Amino acid sequence: MAGPAADVAPDGRRQPGLVRARWVRSLDAAVVAGYLGLAVLLTSRQWGRPDRLFHQDNDQMLFEWMLARAARAVTAGENPLHSAALNAPDGVNLMANTSVLGLGVPLAPVTLLFGTQAAFLVAVVVSLAGTATAWYVLLARRLVGSRVAAAVGGLVCGFAPGMVAQAGAHLHMAAQFLVPPILALVFRPGTDRVRRHGAALGLLVAYQVFVGEELLVFLALAAGVFAVAYALADRAAARRLAPALLGRLGVGALVAGTLLAYPLWFQFLGPQHYQGMPFHARGFQLDAASFTASARQTVLGDGYVPGLLSPNPTEENSFFGPGLLVLAVVVVAWLWRRPLVRALAAVGLLAALLSLGDTVRVDGASTGLPGPYRLLSGVPLLDLVVPARFALICVPVLGVLVALSLDRALALAPVGGEAVSAGTGSGGGAAASSGTGSGAPASSGTGSGGGAVADRPGAPVRLLWGGAVAAALLPLAPTPIRTVPTWPVPAFVADGGWRAYVPAGRTLVPVPPVTGAGVSPATFWSARTGLAFTAPGGYFIGPGAADNPTAHWGAPDRPTAVLLRRAAETGEVPVVTDADRRQAVADLRHWRAAVLVQGGLHRGEAVRRTVDALVGPGREVDGAWVWDVRPLVG
Questions:
Q1: How do residues 492-529 score in pLDDT, each as one tens digit?
Q2: I want to staple 73 with a disulfide (CB 3.0 to 4.6 A). Which of 80, 116, 364, 525 is the partner?
Q3: Cα–Cα distance between 176 and 212 in angstroms, integer?
Q4: How far apart are the C-alpha atoms of 604 and 574, rounded to whole Å?
Q5: From residue 171, how far is each of 128, 251, 305, 471 by CA, in Å?
């Protein structure tokens, strides 16, 4: 049958190149659609369920609030680096927190039209599917010739257990879609257009800062180790490509530094800046046994073993299973002659060792062996990151290794046949013509250093290796992210009934006004109402006090907040003295409070009676207990 008119030349002959390009575009679209569909499936337990949050609910509340704040900054022209909506009267340094402006600003229309929960879920979908797609593009254009191999590699990079675990709570760690283009610019195989590519690199790095700075620290470390390992493996290529690489880095640093000068000053020296971290980061490490275990959110996972091998459900950053690790070892041995593979192996091994923390643990027991992380624990910036997250560097390493091996297997010809190209992209055999994308010489291609493959038993190898890859990856198939119930925002707050009580310059105080790392109704209510009111407290990181910049969860404790938090945690009503009542009035004046509001709480009766004892009886209004404290505060 004759093809479409667009595929036929004026002389009536078919144009196979157009047919091939059209088929490739269709395949690309199908791969991206598959990534999007999987990401939507993983978030399915929360769509249309305002009463549900992902299992790390406090983190979702924080990121919903950040998305609402970004939308507010866009529509109201407010300072995107600081907000007074929480932690009244001091506010929050957003640049010093995970404000994800790089996600929040583009998603502002979604936030404004559909609310923060929908925006958060869209952000999760974009983070997972976008990361997978970005790696797919890099693999297909630079590293492999087979779209199938690139698709599988992108799947690993975007949906590995660690990525799914982080996506349920930490948008700044799951949103890795800028990592592949940054690496593509740093490790270009060409030496031309240094200034142009350096400027593009600087722009991407600056944007990544507004998505997640911690990820950028990991990226810089991994890229540095990769560059050194590759240079040792292929000194000739390193000498040839080093001047252009250093030139791009220099231009990129200049561009990024210019764009980030004020935001970074604001982060480290601006209002409500802090020093250090409010938790002992070095305590968040992985157990060595976690690398061969199954994560809880996989088809073979359970909720018990991962809890013994990782700090918490969000930090299940390894859990690759024995199959994928064995596969990776085989790939490295098989393709060892390629400098790219040797450099990837060095990066992955170092990252895995660093994730074990100060002292190596196996199956929950300390071995007493010092971990390599001790060497970095005093290095600025690296001393602030969570050691367990180093394992996230292993995710793209494994994804690229899987893609390279599949591409090599698919490139083998049947017995007695001619060598075939596994490439399906325009210009066929792109990997061979554009190098490895990591500074490799163009001659490295996609092979393992061997010559013709006409006499190799291709079909059995392809089938066996494809089966091995499937056997290693199928147990890691992710399941929908777990959710937990949450108390709804009371109608008194959601419908605006509070407005009759709160004049300009005054605050609404959710009860309890939690400080510390506890679940914060102030953050949740503020997010779901579009930052409609100002509140004290909240879930963020700030200084311990006005004269103490040491990092602290939430606002500095006020005695009344501590009293109410204790009642919420224990369910017991404390003895309230006249001194407590006087302190409550002082704290309410500090917060500029106009009304106290209590919504649903597990131990709500004890909290309500405590507030009654402090400020007098409240009354129930539109699903909430309300205390009008304007007469007390004046």
A1: 999 999 999 999 999 999 999 876 656 789 999 999 99
A2: 80
A3: 9
A4: 14
A5: 10, 29, 25, 30
